[in-house]
Amino acid sequence: MSRIGKVPIVIPAGVKVHVADGVVRVNGPKGTLEHQLAAGVAVDVGDGTVQVGRADDSRAARSRHGLTQRLVANMVQGVHTGFAQTLEIVGVGYRAEARGQALVFSLGYSHPILFQLRRGSRHASNARP
């Protein structure tokens, strides 16, 4: 059995997981996500946890077992806390600054590099000097 696939997913407070007609729907404070289940993979919602299982030991079912577990776990995390990316710039003279909805990088080129942020991203709240 897949080591990743058999790990239960803990459902945090405020998150609801619903399985119907081969579709997993996860609702939380940050939105709603859904995923179409592959053939041979089953998802059971229990008392505060989600357990992913498979119908048989075929190669296809084994390969999708751990994948489905991680996809559902990421959906739960996404609707509960969201996702963040951290950028660490290492080197002398390298800088980055936030200007509105863009990041301006000075990375040693003859010109600054402008990177547009997606809507709703938090860019300056976790910045360190």
Question: Would you spell out the secondary-structure blueprint of this structure?
Answer:
Layout (H helix, E strand, L loop, with lengths): L8 E2 L5 E5 L2 E6 L2 E6 L4 E5 L3 E6 L4 H22 L14 E5 L2 E5 L6 E4 L13
Antiparallel strand pairs: 1-6, 2-3, 3-4, 5-6, 7-8, 8-9
Question: Top keywords for this entry?
Answer:
Outer Surface Protein A, domain 3, 17% helix, three-stranded antiparallel beta sheet, 129 residues, alpha+beta, 1 helix
Low-pLDDT runs of 5+ residues are: 124-129
Radius of gyration: 20 Å
Q: Give the count of structural domains.
A: 2
Total strand count, please?
Answer: 9
CATH topology of the largest domain: Outer Surface Protein A, domain 3
CATH level-four homologous superfamily name of the largest domain = Ribosomal protein L6
Give me a quick take on this structure:
About 15% of the residues lie in helices and about 35% in strands.
Can you put this structure into words, describing what you see?
The protein has 129 residues and is an alpha+beta fold. It folds into 2 domains: 9-80, Outer Surface Protein A, domain 3 (Alpha-Beta Complex); 86-120, Ribosomal protein L6 (Outer Surface Protein A, domain 3). The chain is 17% helix and 34% strand. The protein has a 3-stranded antiparallel sheet. A 3-stranded antiparallel sheet has the order 2-3-4, covered by helices on one side. A 3-stranded antiparallel sheet has the order 7-8-9, with no helix packed on it. The radius of gyration is 20 Å and the shape is elongated. The N and C termini lie far apart (47 Å). 15% of the residues are buried.
